[in-house]
Amino acid sequence: MSLLAVTNWSVSYGVNKIIHNIDFHIEEGEILLLMGPNGAGKSTVLKSVFGLTPHGSGEMIYNGQSLKPSPDLMVKTGVSFVPQGNTIFSNMTIEENLRMGAYHEVNPVTVEERLEEVISFFPVLKRKRSESAFAMSGGERQILALARALMTSPKLLMLDEPSIGLAPKIVQEVFEKIQMINEEFGTAVVIVEHNLKSLLKIAHRGYILVQGKIAVEGPVEKVAQSDVLEKAFFGELA
Amino acid sequence: MDYLLHISILAAIYSLAVLGQNYASGFTGLVSLNHGAFMGMGAYGLAYFMKTQGLSYPVSFFLAALITAIVAWIVSFPLLKLKDDAFVLVSFGFSFIGYNVFLNWQSVTNGAIGLKGIALPEFVKTWENPKLGFFIFILAVLLVSLWSLKKILDSSYGVIIRATRENQRVTQVSGHDADGYRRSVFVLSSVFASFAGSFLASHISAIDPLLFQYHLSVLLLVMAILGGLASLRGSVLGAVLLILLPEALRFLGLPSSVLAQCQQISYGMILILLMYWRPKGLLGEYSI
Question: For A233, which of A173, B103, B138, B156 is 20 to 30 Å away at the CA?
Fold first, then answer.
């Protein structure tokens, strides 16, 4: 049984249909790569699955249960999402940022244990835990956003372009952390990303999305060999 | 003595209104320019229920606040769809609607003439100096409000509402109903404005629409910015300073027609100077 399976999923913004009745699934403990040219609908898929964007039709089964997604429900059921761009609270300390990810947890002992576990996993955050997040570099901010998403011990982590705006060396560090999260916590990860070269080494499966439809799916080696992405980028599939 | 008491009552009333303004604008980032209209609803609500419906002061006071809260809740739906400049402008639009309702809803507000003979609460009338009793009562309400808001802001709810000011999207993806939190803040802040409006109506005993025109909303925001956004003590300081400032201008010996204009100019100058030299205000932790 898949951790998350979506069937006949469509999303519209007003009269514009962005996602056209797609099916996809995510297995427990895998890293899934969602690829495609700009405007293919990759981010929209993640947002709609998390409940940030209302979906038009389709069914979602998560952990064996049919769900109508909303951010609140998804976080409670073990899904975390790190959107693109500015993803931290700059005027809070690093520790406060992390706690923001765990306000659903009612047991304070669990929160403290989780905080220590997460902060130990990211030495850069441990060193600066009482400092304001305002002065953090782009890479550190992305690490902090990842760490906050882990505060709920998610089964599934969804990342929307985690490398955007980062220097290549930092991107490599972020991807290494994503792999470590997957291996050490057993967290399934879905990544929307343009920076494919490094990710192809760590991902297990992939989908290529073109104009709101799935064009290719399968093991990442198969997807990497497909010429669909190249054609889509150069306009031959448009 | 009466003059000092009058100024003190005004300072306490405006402090209460600015607490509400700052709760929304400073702590939550909802820079509202319609809290003057909410004050008007509190004032007209109290006057209407007491004078026209013959209800007691406490019942009228809380009914006015309830109606204000309901209006704020309804207004929050279109407002909270907007961000930043658009939010400010549309909230300003609502203050114009409020003014026009006060001006034209003759059967309730008595139009441009307004309502007169609004009484103080019954329980202060037994005091030798009822105005002193009224001041102490408002002061008590102000202190309870300060204490309550401090408790709210120190709670996990308070952390989340500040987070919505910082980054609404990330608050949402952390699993919090960001709009729900912002809506609750907007509604509660309108209740503080309503309380202040009701007290103002009792204190000056006569109200008309001009009192609750857009400039009142601007004044409340300037008071909050001067004292310091996201600061409870700053809310009181800003209100007290801007109540005292026009009084200080009286001692310059200017003709009354010029004096009123000078007061308005001084509010504008303060806002300009603050934005350049101290955008966080005197005690604030956050700048617009």
Answer: A173
CA count, 13 A, side-chain hemisphere, B94 = 25
Q: In chain A, pLDDT over 90 holds for what percent of residues?
A: 39
Residue that is written with structure tokens 């980062």 in the block: A166
Residue whose entry in the numeric block shows the structure tokens 């300073």 = B241
- Please tell me the distance from the alpha carbon of residue A121 to that of residue A147, in angstroms, as a whole number: 9
From residue A184, alpha-carbon distances to A29, A153, A176, A192 in Å are 10, 12, 12, 21
Chain B partners of A145 at a C-beta cutoff of 8 Å? Answer: 170
Residue B76 lies in a domain: yes
How far, in Å, CA of A23 to CA of A59, rounded? Answer: 9
Sequence-distant (≥ 6) Cβ neighbours of residue A49 within 8 angstroms: A4, A6, A9, A60, A69, A74, A158
Assigned domain for B273 exists? no
Residue B226 forms part of a structural domain: no
Q: How many CB atoms lie within 10 A of CB A179?
A: 16
Interface test with A, best of B164, B170, B286 (most A CBs within 10 A): B170
Q: Which range in A54-68, B195-209, B261-275 is most confidently predicted, on average pLDDT?
A: B195-209
End-to-end alpha-carbon separation of chain B, Å?
A: 39
Picking from B127, B129, B126, B185, the residue whose alpha carbon sits closest to that of residue B153 is B185
Chains A, B: CB contacts under 8 A, how many? 58
Q: What's the residue count for chain A?
A: 238
Strands A79-82 and A31-35: unpaired
- ipTM > 0.90, yes or no: no
Q: Which residue from A minimizes the CA distance to B287?
A: A91
Domain that holds residue B142: 2-212
Highest mean pLDDT among A137-151, A171-185, B43-57: B43-57
Six-digit token string for B206: 């006569």
Q: Is the dihedral of CA A59, A62, A64, A65 positive or negative?
A: negative
Instruction: State pLDDT tens for residues A18-43.
Output: 899 999 999 999 999 998 888 888 99
- Interatomic CA distance for residues A136 and A118, integer angstroms: 18
Q: Over the stretch A106-132, which tens digit does the pLDDT of each residue have?
A: 788 888 899 998 998 888 888 888 898
Tally of structural domains, chain B: 1
Domains identified in chain A and CATH numbers? 4-85+153-233 (3.40.50.300)
* Chain B residues with CB-CB distance to A154 below 8 A: none
Among candidates B160, B172, B173 on the partner chain, residue whose Cβ is nearest the Cβ of A103: B160
The answer to the question of residue B242 being in a domain is no
